[in-house]
Every structure is written in C-alpha cells, then in structure tokens.
Amino acid sequence: MTTTSSTSSFKNAPFTPFVSGLGVTHHAAVRMQQRAITKMGIHWAVAYGKCVQKQGLCFFILTRKSLPAKLPPKLQKQLLGLVVIAKTKWHGGWIVQTCYRNAGALKSIRKKQKYLAMAN
Questions:
Q1: CATH number of the CATH domain containing 39
Q2: Which domain holds residue 69?
Q3: How far, in Å, are 53, 55, 90, 96, 102 from residue 108 at the CA level?
Q4: Quick one: DSSP state of residue 88?
Q5: How many whole angstroms separate alpha carbon 111 and alpha carbon 61?
Q6: What is the pTM assigned to this prediction?
Q7: DSSP code at position 97
Q8: pLDDT in tens, 20-63
C-alpha cells in the first residue's frame, strides 16, 4: 500500500493517511469511491458531525443541526446524512473504517448496543 506521506511513521501503517490526523483504511477508500463521498465530506463529518460512541467506534453523523447554516444549499444536500465510522485515535488522529449516507442514521445508531456481544 502506498502512502502520501514520506515520514517513517506511516511506512507500515495499515491505512493511507490523506491529511495529518486522519487516516483511511482500504475498505473506506473503496466505499468512498463507490458512494461518491469526497475527502472534503469526511473532513466536514469529523469536524462538525455529531459523535456517537458505540461498540468501540465513533460514528460521526452530519445532521441538519450540525451543518453550518452558511453552506451553499447544494453542498448541504450533498453532506446531509453522511455517516463516517472511525476507530480509535492513531498518533492523535482518527482512522476512518467506512462511510455511507443515511438520512435516519442518528436514530438507528442510538439504538445499537453499547458493546458488541462476545461469543463463548
């Protein structure tokens, strides 16, 4: 896997960092491409989205209330309902696991169990 940074700390990383403090797994990069979600959309979600922590992950959800009102309507429509699932911080940043769009995501994510069930 190639990286965009020449620093030695990213050489063996299991993800591709595209800005400092935010990395994207291969799975997330594929899903971003399939679902036409831009890097800018990921940045908006992490910066302005409502963070719900469940099952050891952080779900960043962009809702009408979390989006800045000064955004153009076209951009608001693009970003509304965007969900970014990120894992624990790595060197002070997030690792994006996957992303998708769902208008009713906040309700369904709040209903999730707090922890994943462990099989015996």
A1: 3.30.2310.20
A2: 17-110
A3: 13, 14, 27, 20, 10
A4: E
A5: 14
A6: 0.73
A7: E
A8: 578 888 898 898 999 989 888 888 888 888 888 887 888 899 98
